[in-house]
Amino acid sequence: MTTNRVKVEIITIGDEILIGQIVDTNSAWMATELNKAGFELAQITSVHDEAEHIVESLNKALKRADVVLFTGGIGPTNDDITKQTLSAYFGSKPVFNDQVLENIKQLFKTRPNFVLNDLTRAQAMVPDNCTVIQNPVGTAPVTWFEKNGKVIVSMPGVPYEMKQAMSTEIIPRLQLHFKTPEIRHRTLQVYGYPESTLALKIADWENELPGFISLAYLPNSGIIKLRLSGLADDSLMLEFSMNQQIDKLNQLLGSAIVAFEDIPMEQLVGNLLLEQGKMVATAESCTGGNIARSFTAYPGSSAYFKGSVVAYSNDLKINILEVSPEVLEKNGAVSQPVVEQMAIGVRKLLKSDVAIATSGIAGPSGGTEDKPVGTVWIAVCSGDVVLSRQFHFGTLREQNILRATQASILMLKEIL
Asked: pTM value?
């Protein structure tokens, strides 16, 4: 038996969001952190900087959520109207808060170009019937209202100010105010199955999941993430049940499970290279350096990534990677012998332990009857061992590059 979920609604305020001037990253971050803490997101809403819209969204939110979190619309400028709107909504009177003013003064001591003026001083005027939470990294305080057992919080929209308030004040206070159940998420990554085929393969297992564990499918560039979410009051029982279900799934899928955690494949393989003390190099044609970009996106990748040659032309394949002109002439650039020679050539050239090579037709043009758009050959080599495979990814260029990148990294994982 589990505790009823505490439902939270996030309302972001700002015309800049609704016209696409900025992307609402606040809501995604807040949703992640709230979920970790055991809260359930009821809805995320964005509204204009208008009192009518703010009140309308709040009334609707209070019908479906226990907690309403506002971000944005508070600050020293005239278009920041959230504080005034909520004050009127809760029948508040403005009162001067000395602690807010002192917080602003302390903040300005570290910002010599900022001067206390009437607008910033006005930030210390707060509703008399709210709990004021100081904002140590900004001038606008956080306000916490309670009504009929529900909580309404208004926070700044500046991301680092919101994150500071959520992490240090709001979530801890909500956890004291409400009883939340234990929640666990476990993600497995599966490769080699179309989504519908995988769903049929594990249908019986899925149907037998206990009621407190749910499953979500998250496809991503050829990999399907299976996310198990568990919710219960008993954390030990929940952990045991989650592990039990993962063991059953492992027996069903075996080597098709390429990771038992939610981690990018290039990071996982990078960790393997690091553990084994090996360096990788890449020779890329159709992927255009995307494999190299994937590896080098992570700090510390210089410890296992040697370098890359983007050999788009046949001249480079011949003169830099030592691909045989006769092999190229006979088989074409998109072929098994060429991609294998590319892998061997870049490993030798850059003096790496292992190497990846790709050659294919990314599209949308360039395909033939024998080699349609989406045909890609990939080779990986380690020592004297060379592994190569042909793939047919589809007709969309960007998708082909992403899927070829993912397949290359997984083949490297296999040979390691």
From this structure: 0.74
